[in-house]
# Entry
Amino acid sequence: MSHFINVILPLPLEKHFTYAVSGAEADFLQPGMRVAVPFGKSKVYTGIISKIHGEAPQLYEAKPIEQILDEQPVVTQKQLKFWKWIASYYMCAEGEVLRAAIPSAFLLESETVVQLNKEAKPDEATLSDDEFLLFEALQSQSSLKIQEIVQLLDRKTVLSVINSLVEKKVVVVNQEIYEQYKPKMERYVQLHAVYSEEAKMHELLDNLDRAPKQREVVLTLFSLAAKTKKHVKVSELSKASKASATTIKSLIDKQVLEEFHLQTQRMQYEEKEISAAVELNEFQEKALDEVQQSFESENVCLLHGVTSSGKTEIYVKLIENVISEGKQVLFLLPEIALTAQLISRLQNYFGEQVAVYHSKYSVNERVEVYQNILANNKNARVVVGVRSSIFLPFQELGLIVVDEEHESTFKQYDPAPRYNARDLAVVLGNLHKCNVLLGSATPALESYFNADHHKYKLVNLNRRFGNVLLPKIEVVDIKEKYRKKRMKGHFSDRLEEEIRETLGNGEQVILFQNRRGFSPILECNTCGQSPQCPNCDVSLTFHSHNNQLRCHYCGYHMALQQKCMACGSPELSTKGFGTEQVETELKALFPEHKIGRMDLDTTRGKHGYEKIITAFEKREIDVLVGTQMLTKGLDFRNVRLVGIMNADTLLNFPDFRAHERSFQLMLQVAGRAGRTKEQGLVLVQTYNPHHRIVQQVSTNNYVEMYEEQLEERRQYKYPPFFRLIRITLKGRDFSRVNEGADWLAKGLKQVFGEHVLGPEFPPVARIRNEYYKNILVKIPQEQSVTRTKKVMEKIFTSFRAIGPYRSLRLVINVDPY
Ligand code: ADP
Ligand code: ZN
Ligand code: ZN
# Structure
C-alpha cells in the first residue's frame, strides 16, 4: 500500500497538496508536524501536515517530500480545526491562516546558497577580478546568498560569475534549507578557578595595582557574583564597572577571567515581589459571583462595567482559579504598547507565569513563547497578547478574557485572514469548551445585542472603585463661543479656564483630538488648491515639527512649499487641526507648563508609548495631548480634567458605525478623568451640543445609545440584523477596475438582488497608484451564510476566468467593520 500526506502550504491556495511518503515515514508522521516539500519547478516550502492517508491524488502524481522537520507536532489538532473554521468563515485559504498563525521562523526558507568547494585549490591567476573577489569573500563567510553576492560585486547579474566558478570547481551551489530560529546565547565571565584561593586573589590584586581599570573589573565581578549568587554577564560587568570591552578582553586574554556562553530565554522576566491579591469590594464581589454563575449555564459572559470599576481585579480572581487547575488563560488586549500598565499588574499577581505575545517582539522571542505555550510550561500559563495571540497553540485553555472588547483593533484588515479576534475568541472558547469573558465599559453593539438576546450572559458593574463618582460631563457649544469671540484658537474660554484651575491645583489634564479624517492640510488662499499625493487620492498632511508634507497612506513626503504649486501664490494657510496644532496652541497659552503629545508620530519604536505614559504618570508632563491611543484602558491617578477638542469630527465620519464609535471613544477618554479621589470633569467641545450622541455621552447612557442605534441598524439593514461582506477590487488600470466591478456587481445582483450595494469608490479611491472599488453584500438573518458564501465563490471563480480581469485583485472582507 502506498502512503500519502496532505500538506497545508503557506500560500493563498484553496486546496491542500498531497505528497508521497514511505511506510516508515507514515508511521512516524503526525498531523501538525512540519515537512519541507517541493513545489512548482524548483521551490521548496515548509508545510504543515493536515492528514495522513492512503489515497493517491487523481489529477497529478504525488511527489515525495524533501525532509521531515519535527519530531513532535508544532501545531495541535485543535489549531488545525480552528484554521479550517477561520478559512471557511472569512473566505480565505488555510495557507493564509497558517501564515498568520505560526511565527515566521517556523517556516523555513529555500534559497540558493553559494559555498566554497572544500577540496578546491584554485590557481588564483586563472580567476577574473570578480571571481577572485567572491572566492576571497567565501574564505571568511561560509556561504553567501545570491542577493549578497549582487551587493558584494556591485553588479546586477552575477550568475555568470558563479557559473564560471562552479565550472572551475571553486564553489558549489545548492539549495539549502535552514532554520531561522537561533537560541540566544549570552556571554558570561567568571574568575579563573585558581583565584578561588584567597592568597592567589590577593596576589592578583597586588599585580593589578598598576592597571587600576582592570583591578576595578575584578573587584566588581567579585562583588556582583557574591551579591547575586548567579553567573555574571559580560554586559552587566561592563556596565557595573564602567569598563570597556577591551579591558575585559585583556583580562580574558591574561586568563584572569574565563569566558563562557549560556543559552538564555529571550524574555527574561524581571523578578518582582508577588503582591498579595486585593480584596474585592462588595460590588466587585457580586459581579464576580454573577460571572461565575453565568458560566454554569453559558460559555460567554459580557461584563459591562463602567470605567475604573475594577474589572481587572475581577479578571484576576477568575484567572487565579483557572491556573490553579494547571490550565491556561488567554488575555486579549487591543494594543500591547498601551497596556504596559496592565501587564505589570498581571505580573504582580502571577509572576513569571505571565507570557506576553506581541508582533513588536523579535521572531526569536515569539518562537519561545509559542513553544512554551505548546508545552503548557509554567512560564506561559497566563498569555497576554494582541489579536494574533488567538492563534497560539494552547493545550488546555480554561478561560479567555477579551478586555476592551469593543475596540476596532481586534479586527485585522490586511492581509488575509481578515478576522476579528473578539469573535474568534468565542469560536476558540467553543473548541476548548472553555469560558469566555468579554469586558468593556462601552460594549460593541453586537456584543450587547447578543447579551440582550440571551446568547451571552450579561453582568453589570455600575460603580467606580472606591466610590469615586463618574466624571461630570459638560458640553461646550463652540458655535456660540466663536460667535461671542470667546475662542482662542481651538480653545474655548471654558476649557482654558478649567485647564488653568486644574494645573493650579497641581493636577493633570488630558486633551483628546482625533486626527482620523481631520489632519492639517495646506490650502492656497488664492486658488483653493492643496498639495496632493502623486500616488494616492488624498491631500498631503502638514507636519510642522519637520516642515514636511506627508501622505498618510503611502508615506510619500516633500518639503513644505513656500508657494502654491498650482498658481504660485505665496498665501497658504493650514486647514483642519491635529494634535500637533493643539500642542502648539497650548504651549502659547500655558508657556510655563510641560506639554506632552501622544500619537503615531511620537510613539514609534518599541518603547515609545511607555516612555510618554511613564512621564505622565511621574507627573513630568502636565498636559497630555493625544489621539485615540489615549482611550485604551489607561489608569492615571492624578487627572482631573479631560477635554475633547472637537466631537464633530468623530460624529461626521462616513461609516454606519460612526455614532457608536464616537460614543465609545468619548466615554472612554472621559473615563480617564477623576479615577481616584474627587469627581473629575470632562468638557466636550462641539458645534452640535444637541446631538443625540453628545447628550448620551454627557448622561452616560449606554442603554439609550444602544437602543437608538439598534433601531437605525434595523432600518438601514446593518449588523447585527444583516451580515456584511465587502468585496474590494484593486487594479492599476482605472477603466478595467470599473468594468470588472460592474461585471461582478451585476453577477451578484442577479442572485442577491437589492442586498448588493455598489460598486462604489471608497473615500480614498487610489492608493499607491492602485484604484479601489467596493461592492457590499448584505446577508439577512434568515439567509444561510454558508450557502451565500458558496454562491459568491462561484461568481468569483467565473470572474477570475475572464482574461482581462486577471490583472485585478479581489479582496474579500467578511464583517468588514
Ligand atoms: P477598569 O478596568 O474597570 O477601568 P481598573 O481595574 O483599572 O478599572 O481599576 C481602577 C483602579 O481601582 C485601579 O487603580 C485599581 O488598582 C483599583 N482597584 C480596583 N479594585 C480594587 C480593589 N478591590 N482593591 C484595591 N484597588 C482596587
Ligand atoms: Zn494657488
Ligand atoms: Zn500617497
